[in-house]
Amino acid sequence: MEIILKEDVIGLGYKNDIVNVKSGYGRNYLIPTGKGVIASESAKKQLAEDLKQKAVKLAKIKADAEALAEKLNAVSLTIPTKVSSTGSIYGSVNSLQIADELQKLGFNIDRKIIVVKDVKSVGEYVATVKLHKEVSAQVPFTVIADAAPVVEAAPVVEEAPAQKEEVEFEEPEMADEE
């Protein structure tokens, strides 16, 4: 018996596959649970048409993602952040700051599709934007110190006197206890 699967079935096949199964398995399990339908001629034609339309939609989505990736590859970002005197960042630069900088340039990119490694010091880095399962863009960015750098306050140390003064201690008189 030929069945068109409507969802993935472990050990049998994937969605939209046409598989041969025993009659009892198809009639008693796959069809009643909605996991498959009988592969008649009309069902096969419908499946072919659906796959053709889906392929066109997926090709358009992929083409749009590739066009956006070309635009993003030409972008270079500069991210100002608060930095200590040693050059380390307070906190870190993450996908949220990169998404905000891209937003300022007119790109509406969700921060969840931006992948950034640990950025904890000033320097040049690369972020990966995953636009499609087969398309990603590399966005270089530079982390720089903010215009008003935060300076860590060093504790004030007073100099010790040049000569050591001798201090005499008087011992208190103790009362004899008997």
Question: How are the SSEs ordered, and which strands pair?
Answer:
Blueprint: E1 2-5, E2 18-20, H1 23-30, E3 36-38, H2 41-73, E4 77-81, H3 95-104, E5 114-115, E6 123-132, E7 135-145
Parallel strand pairs: 4-7
Antiparallel strand pairs: 1-2, 1-3, 5-6, 6-7
Structural summary, described in words:
With 178 residues, this protein is of the alpha+beta class. The protein folds into 2 domains: 2-62, Ribosomal protein L9, N-terminal domain (Ribosomal Protein L9, domain 1); 71-145, Ribosomal Protein L9, domain 2 (Roll), CATH 3.10.430.100. 29% of the residues lie in helices and 21% in strands. It is built from 3 helices and 7 strands; from the N terminus they run E-E-H-E-H-E-H-E-E-E. A 4-stranded mixed β-sheet has the order 4-7-6-5. A hairpin with a 7-residue loop joins strand 5 and strand 6.
- DSSP helix fraction: 25-40%
Q: Find the count of extended strands (DSSP E, 2+ residues).
A: 7
Count of structural domains: 2
User: Which class of secondary structure composition applies to the elements?
Assistant: alpha+beta
N-end to C-end Cα span: 114 Å
Q: Report the biggest beta sheet as strand number plus sense, adding barrel if it closes.
A: 4 strands, mixed
The order of strands across the largest sheet is 4-7-6-5
Give the SSE string: EEHEHEHEEE
- Number of helical elements: 3
Sequence stretches where pLDDT stays below 50 over 5 or more residues: none
Principal-axis shape equals: elongated
CATH-scheme architecture of the largest domain = Roll
- Gyration radius from CA atoms, angstroms: 35 Å
CATH class of the largest domain equals Alpha Beta
The name CATH uses for the topology of the largest domain is Ribosomal Protein L9, domain 2
Quick check: average pLDDT? 85
Q: For the record, what is the CATH homologous superfamily label of the largest domain?
A: Ribosomal protein L9, C-terminal domain
Strand content: 15-25%
